[in-house]
């Protein structure tokens, strides 16, 4: 055990810090949250800077370097290989830590491409598919969204019913998807469809790449309890998707999807732990100024929460070390997701206690709720999205602790 | 950055685990419940295995007449204490380690430790007084450590809540003693807090394993109770509290060995103890719940876990002290943030 940077890690951190120090002051102001085209160009603009500096896709597997070489040769990308690509998991963690610390833009609209679709195409796609889609994700040229959940398929994702019927060189896709973030501005959608209705349900699913401008695609914004439209519903009415856009074999989409999900549960929230710690320090400052600090129980709860985020950061480091040694994120990922999502909700509940009646007012400015209350509302999704806390507990109990599956005597 | 244990660390931990499984299994555990209070079960074996002298320098100070140690760090010590905590070995383990490393306690001896300033709420309790060779009195306000002879203390034997941790209530005032030169009470307190947290992590792991083992075997409604999600989720939460605490304990130890500044270290240790106490106490409670009626009996070992977890929760820094320390650090960081 040695938690200090190796010389290579220290050099990576130094280089990144220097670069962030240079580029961040030149960034344009962030767009209004309701301005989707503005958000897209802000997020993809940041991705382009990362790409030009060699920091795009630092977490992607080393094997995709070969894709880069090929893509450069064939002129799909402008001859430039991302220098950071193929970095170790520890270096990726440094990337998340340093970008968050410096207040760099969040991955935003590039999330699905960089964290779901890209790694899946890299792992499961044909050379042609990798050449077609990976460079656009890395350079920020193309935005992806995710079409997995459906009204009748949430935690039980394998119950999905969106149908794809083969017709010549196309699939004809009909159905609807839910919780599709960035659908309004996406170019592509990683889509799970049922290609065999008669097979056992995990074996009749395929993974398709849907062009969002195809005829028959309708996007309807979904207003969340926070009052904003962070997600959308997707309606698909006989949309034609080329068979060439299928990643993996027909009816093998469930396995292909699991590859994707393991990426999300690895280091996806690591940067957010750093952000929460920063918010907690800010909250302590606020409590100092408005007198809430004199409330002994509240103050001690803030102290305990500092311990929780500190330990979660150590758990991330541990998971990353295991990934580095074994190649895949360990079972610690579900434990982390469970504890982090709860701790983050606790943070904004405590913020409400610090603000008092100010937490009941949605307005800008520190004296009132402002961002804290908006975050409190938005944070309610953390114990639901990406596997509810109940599903995470099932995973921990059955896959980590080895308890029997329910419903079987 | 590498959080993985080295081969030597794995070997140390496994060696100790095997020793404890062989010498402190279920039968020995039950014997320890009824053992004489002036005896310390397993002390010779643990001493010979180097538990108390792991951190002692290989070549101690020439003025120190006691035996040399293994020259290892807190990282190795917390791994060892996780194992001892898991095995539920009773006795003043942490104080004996601290007295061996810092106060020249001879091998095979036993020591207890009491903080006199600031004093804890309630009576002054010391574990297994008749078995002790030394008692260290800590004043963490002034940083001084005094050593007193246990035989010269006025005391009354009390029944401890943990049947394996018999206690004596001490009467003040103590006979005056000179502070030990070069021994820092705050450092002892911090290290003792961390080692106690390591014991709790081990105990919490045992609670998870015990609950899961019982849930997989106990049948109700025609199936193992572990097949019910209500029981599964109790077990999952036990693990989800234990693993972050384990990460925090190990990280704090590694930071200490790497020479982290005392203030920074105090924050790491406070967090580790808070979470380890939570993992152990709540884990033992949940383990008891999973055992149902059996858990409420003297016969099942489950109550021994909970009672020991309470003892460790009350040893060294408690929740108020640790959370206030963490809050103060947040506040200091917040000032820089304004």
Assembly type of the chains comes to heterodimer
* Main structural class of chain B: mainly alpha
| Total number of strands of chain A | 8
Q: Enumerate how many helices of chain B there are, as a single number.
A: 11
Which strand order does the major sheet of chain A show? 1-4-5-8
Mean of residue pLDDT values of chain A: 88
For the report, how would you describe the main beta sheet of chain A? Answer: 4 strands, mixed
Kindly provide the radius of gyration of chain B, computed on alpha-carbon positions and rounded to a whole number of angstroms. Answer: 20 Å
Description of the molecule:
The complex is a heterodimer of chains A (409) and B (338). Chain A starts with 6 loop residues before the first helix and ends in a 9-residue tail after the last helix. Chain A folds into three domains: 7-142, Orthogonal Bundle (Butyryl-Coa Dehydrogenase, subunit A, domain 1), CATH 1.10.540; 146-252, Butyryl-CoA Dehydrogenase, subunit A, domain 2 (Beta Barrel); 269-400, Butyryl-CoA Dehydrogenase, subunit A, domain 3 (Up-down Bundle). In chain A, α10 runs antiparallel to α11 (370-378). Chain A is α+β, with helices and mostly antiparallel strands and 409 residues long. Chain A is globular, with a radius of gyration of 22 Å. Chain A contains twelve helices and eight strands. In chain B, the strands form three sheets. Chain B has a three-stranded mixed beta sheet with strand order 1-3-4, covered by helices on one side. A three-stranded antiparallel beta sheet of chain B has the order 2-6-5, with no helix packed on it. In chain B, α1 (7-23) packs parallel to α4, α4 packs across α6 (185-217) and α6 packs antiparallel against α10. Chains A and B meet through α8, α9, α10 and α12 of A and α6, β8, α7, α8 and α11 of B.
